[in-house]
Every structure is written in structure tokens, then in C-alpha cells.
Amino acid sequence: MPNKKYKIAVIQLNLNDVAENNLKKCISWVRDAAAQGAEVISLPELYSSHYFCQSEDVDNFALAEPLYSTSFIAFSELAKELGVVIIVPFFEKRMAGIYHNSAYIIDTDGTEAGLYRKMHIPDDPAFYEKFYFTPGDLGFKNNPTKKGNIGTLICWDQWYPEAARITALKGAEVLFYPTAIGWHPQEKEQYGENQYGAWMNVMKGHAVANGVYVAAANRIGLEQYLPNTPGIEFWGASFICGPQGEILAQASHDKEEILIAEVDLDLQENVRQNWPFFRDRRIDAFGDITKRAID
């Protein structure tokens, strides 16, 4: 029988360090989350390194790892030891010249419950991801685990209602968004509040429109690894919300934290029964959504 209730967690961290240190740090924080009762635990995007996409530099491809190597081995053993599900976002080297921004979903027995490759790839100042990442080719997925049905999207995917909708329609009870988003320090005073607010609002909207739980795991800290540049100030503010967009747990902008909240499938069903958005979808009229523009 599926679990009617289970606890999920997002871990908010400063990850501006080398891979070995970040791995040790994340393992320790996952242990702490499990000790606090979390059963499904997500790390932030590209957990193993600083956010290297601030520049276009071929040397950064050395940060990538092949499938089922360092990260999978370490967190597979940890998931099995602790009996928890772990979402591990990492820089995937698929082959020479093809790299992805990916995430493992590792089940409680240490096996792979799913692999997600980021579908939407940004190219903004200091977020030069198109230089590094091939767009995902595995589609939007629900990943059944021994704790629940988990959907994983990554960062820039946050802005696309189609991604959330398809993942929810496939059966995901929770949408996890491992994330690396922040302010350009020189813009923060003028635009910062609106940027952060839009980020929160769009994901809360996905929760409401699809009757799902949403959990976003962001970084914190100023990452200024390039000399003579302002860097990026990651704004933290990780959160978990329920199927009506209600905030269940909210992190600060500048502290390392674990957020934990309970998924209640009876509540989710009740919300969907009272707000039957899936029932009333006019799928006969949505054909144009697959066009780039409706000219």
C-alpha cells in the first residue's frame, strides 16, 4: 500500500567549495535531515561544485562525472543505510562533448528510481548554461519510490507551467526543484524583491494549478570565483508548499538550513476533489500549445 503520509526535506547550503568537500558536507546534512525524520531529501542544483556557469570556460567540463560514478556510489550507499530517498543533482558527462545538468532519484534500497536531465537551459548574464549543458532528452517524469511518487525538475524548469503540468499528470505527488538562483549584486536593490517574489509565486502557482506539493532547494552565499566580477549572491529562501500554495516551511536568505514538511495524500485528494482543475481541462482546445508562437 502506498504511504498516505511521508515527510520531505530540502537542504539549503553554501556549496562554494571543491567537490570532495561538498560531497562530505552534503552527506553530513542528509544524515541530519534523516535523523529529523525526513524520508525524501533533496540537495540543491549542481551540489558538488561552485556555480561555474558564471563564465564560459572549457576547463569547467572537468567538474562533470560519468553516470553511476562518484555521486551515485556515495549517495546510493547513504540512501540504503538510512532508508531514505535522496535527490542528487549533478553535472553529468554523458560522453565527450555531451554534458547534462541532471539529478538522480535514489530509492531507499540504494537503487535508481529515476534520472532527470534538465529540459530548459538558460543563457543569461552569469548564468551561461547553454555553453555547458545539452537539453534533457528523457522528458518529464514521475518516479515511483518506496516513499511516494516524486517528480524532479531543475531550476530554470521552474518557470514553465507545462513542465509542472506534465509531471503532475504522470502521477507525481511532489515536485522537487533543485535550484541555483540568485541576485546580481549590482541589481539587487532595484530588482531583487520582484525577482525573488516572481520565483516564489510561479512555483506556488504550479502547486495550486496541479494540486501538488512543491519543494525548492536553493543555494546561499556570494559566489565570486571570477576575479574582478561582482559574482552571484544566491538568495536561498528555499521552501515547501502544499497543494493550495500554502507555505509549510520557509528558509532564510543567508543561512544553511534543513526544511521538513509532511506530504498528506488524503489532503491532496481532498483539494483536487474540491478544486477539480484536471477534470475541467479543455484538452480538445490546447493543440496550439506545441507551437513556438501563434502567428
From TrEMBL:
Keywords: Acyltransferase, Hydrolase, Transferase. One of its GO terms (molecular function) is acyltransferase activity. Signal peptide: none annotated. The keyword Hydrolase applies. Residues 6-265 form the CN hydrolase domain. The keyword Transferase applies. This is Apolipoprotein acyltransferase.
